[in-house]
Specification:
This protein is an alpha+beta fold and about 700 residues long. The chain has 13 helices and 37 strands. Strands 30-31-33-32-34-35-36-37 form an eight-stranded mixed β-sheet, sandwiched between helices. A hairpin with a 5-residue loop joins β28 and β29.
């Protein structure tokens, strides 16, 4: 990437001493932290002006240095946009007598939600046109759509700030009227009781944003009169409310990283008292479904590390009555299950690969859907109907565009309802190769790396390669198709997805071995995968790039402190990098609920361990790769000041002349831009950064 004479901002140093367990840390950039009130105030105070001025200076520096790439960015955006079917539409799904659909119109950023009564030939009813609703907002998110049992009303949730604090409102789908009921500061989710007038919803703590209370609202009454039906007082837990697929029960669940607890209520009796299923036991996880006279649980009871399926009579719900339906298997992770009138559908993962298992309740049928590719992603979704033989599932891979498939569990006939269209006339599936290789980590564990590249790309030390990973919360990044990624593959890049510890790619143990006091395994795995790719001539340190976001941004911060010399460039999106300070501050959203993920640094053992890898605390005077760091000013998941402070400290200490950019979207939060095209522009900026470092800006 070219350089010019632009001078990067230099942040003021104002030392703040932070002491814990007798250890003193000096934070020169603590002053960058603003409260929500300061950020949203119509008139900026002196500190707010100072912070926003610094962020805007960083943005201006980034724009100036990369100004020569502006035309390429726009062309790349148009290229990626050109692969998307702008007037796209989802496959309609049936629920309670209606077929529901989500569609887009040419040139419009947001979806239109509609339905048809009885058949697909019926007249379309537009429920919500989000393009109209979003007018006048820099950011707009519609969520939580929930239609009443009588099909006449819909609850919906809106967020115009990007802090995931949703307003709930109710629309009359027959008249179009939006009722005066407005419920503030919710998670966006809601549940209808069977009386078509009572709504259960979850309130957030206004400071920590922890989901902590369940309320009951009756249409037409003041929200100030809503009844609190549950308060989760343990600040390491959150709570939510849902409804069983059978429509029989309202279920409130409380959750921590490793412990859950649920209670239930007859949906016909919304003013009744909730009954606890099984009181919480530390490290016992279970989630509840209902079928006939039993509750079914996906649970880790009896040391079922990879989970198993159990059931118990509705009137005998405590653990001593639970019996196995699908026993625990050491080599297979049971990820989810779906209940139908005649069938049980299981979603499993074995040796890293998704499996879908079909089983009749009478045990006369038990089989797996066949999948042939070496790397792929498959999952059951969009199946609200209970009395049906049809399941709908998705399938895609690094080289196969996403398909939505209806499968008849009785006849085994399948119908591809839709396959993602890749426009532009250039994509041919046969032109791309995918494979899975296994790197040996420093402790001997085998770590899978999924790879995809154009068939004409020569694999050697001059091949540019982008390595991606996440590695936290047990979340497994799927080997899925991406139309935007084609812009890299067609320019000679290899894309590598490292299935490092901290995910559940190889089961729950794979997650447990990458969290708490094992967290460094996540970072070591990524570095060891990088070294494997270099050693096996897929690329070299001059052409290796790494990317991760949020907890994956923490990963980026850790690896550049530990092994900066093997990467040419890094993209860290909304990175969680000030781990010690954040985990010590229980006023920050998410902190207390994450003690089971990172450890509680109020305990010295965890404090010392977290401090030993926290990216912000381990920046040193040495050379770092080229880096692009992105954040959102209104981010509630990872506050903007973490990446801002990190970049300031890197600027202060790093000894190289490599590029370092901080790009702050002043209008959005953790998920970035809300419109589909604005999100593409952000991807175009990311890709332009590494393509420029590779001198591949030719069109």
């Amino acid at each position: 990437m070219k350089s010019n004479n632009a001078k990067h901002p230099i942040a003021e140093k104002k030392p703040t001493k932070l002491e814990k367990h007798g250890d003193v840390r000096v934070d020169n950039y603590f002053w960058m932290r603003l409260s929500d009130e300061q950020k949203l105030a119509p008139i900026k105070d002196e500190q707010t002006q100072k912070v926003t001025s610094y962020l805007e200076e960083e943005n201006a520096y980034y724009k100036e240095v990369t100004s020569y790439t502006k035309d390429f960015q726009e062309n790349l955006f148009q290229e990626m946009k050109g692969r998307i079917k702008e007037d796209d539409s989802s496959v309609p799904y049936k629920n309670n007598g209606y077929f529901y659909n989500t569609r887009y119109e040419v040139g419009k950023q947001y979806p239109i939600y509609s339905r048809k009564k009885g058949s697909l030939e019926a007249k379309e009813e537009i429920i919500f046109d989000v393009n109209q609703m979003a007018e006048g907002f820099e950011y707009f998110q519609l969520g939580g759509l929930n239609v009443s049992p009588n099909n006449k009303l819909a609850v919906f949730a809106t967020d115009t700030v990007s802090r995931r604090q949703y307003f709930l409102r109710v629309k009359n789908l027959e008249t179009g009227q939006i009722y005066d009921d407005i419920i503030e500061n919710t998670t966006g989710g809601s549940v209808w009781a069977n009386d078509n007038k009572t709504i259960f919803y979850t309130k957030k703590n206004p400071v920590t944003l922890r989901s902590e209370k369940i309320f009951r609202h009756v249409l037409g009454t003041r929200t100030s009169e809503d009844v609190e039906v549950y308060h989760e007082k343990d600040d390491t837990f959150g709570t939510y409310v849902t409804k069983s697929k059978s429509k029989k029960f309202i279920i409130i669940s409380s959750f921590a990283t490793m412990t859950t607890e649920s209670r239930y209520l007859d949906a016909d009796n919304p003013t009744g008292e909730f009954t606890i299923v099984q009181p919480r036991i530390k490290n016992l996880e279970y989630n509840v479904s209902h079928y006939k006279d039993h509750f079914y649980f996906l649970t880790n009871k009896d040391d079922a590390t990879n989970f198993k399926l159990m059931k118990t009579p509705v009137h005998q719900t405590t653990v001593e009555y639970w019996v196995d339906v699908i026993p625990h298997r050491k080599e297979t992770l049971l990820e989810d299950f779906s209940i139908y009138s005649d069938y049980l559908v299981l979603e499993e993962r074995t040796n890293g690969l998704n499996k879908i298992r079909i089983k009749r309740w009478d045990n006369s049928v038990d089989y797996y859907l066949p999948f042939d590719e070496e790397t792929y992603s498959a999952g059951v979704y969009g199946n609200p109907e209970f009395d049906t033989e049809i399941i709908r599932y998705s399938y895609n891979s690094f080289t196969t565009p996403s398909s939505v498939i209806d499968f008849n569990m009785a006849t085994k006939a399948k119908e591809i309802k839709k396959q993602q269209e890749v426009l532009g006339g250039k994509f041919k599936q046969k032109n791309y190769r995918s494979e899975r290789v296994w790197a040996t980590a420093r402790d001997g564990k085998k770590v899978a790396i999924s790879l995809v590249y154009h068939k004409d790309t020569k694999l050697n030390e001059n091949t540019p390669l982008l390595q991606y990973a996440y590695g936290s919360y047990g979340y497994t990044i799927p080997d899925s198709f991406s139309t935007t990624r084609l812009s890299l593959l067609d320019r000679g890049f290899v894309y590598a997805l490292a299935h490092i510890r901290g995910s559940e790619y190889l089961g729950r143990d794979w997650y447990d071995d990458g969290k708490m006091l094992n967290k460094k395994n996540t970072f070591y795995d990524f570095i060891d995968c990088s070294q494997f790719l270099i050693d096996h001539k897929y690329t070299s340190a001059k052409h290796l790039y790494a990317m991760g976001g949020s907890a994956g941004g923490l990963l980026m911060g850790a690896i550049v402190n530990m092994k900066p010399e093997i990467y040419n460039g890094i993209i860290a999106a909304v990175p969680f990098v000030d781990v010690v300070s954040t985990m010590l501050d229980d006023s920050i959203p998410l902190t207390t609920g994450e003690y089971d993920e990172w450890g509680n640094p109020n305990e010295k053992e965890f404090y010392d361990y977290i401090k030993s890898y926290s990216p912000y605390d381990n920046v040193e005077a040495k050379e770092y790769p080229h880096m692009l760091v992105t954040t959102g000013f209104h981010d509630s998941q990872v506050q903007y000041w973490e990446p801002a402070k990190w970049v300031a400290k890197l600027r202060e200490l790093k000894t190289d002349n490599n590029l370092l950019f901080l790009d702050t979207n002043m209008e959005t939060g953790h998920g970035g831009a809300s419109g589909r095209f604005e999100a593409l522009k952000e991807t175009a900026k990311d890709y332009t950064f590494i393509l420029a470092l590779e001198n591949k800006l030719e069109n």
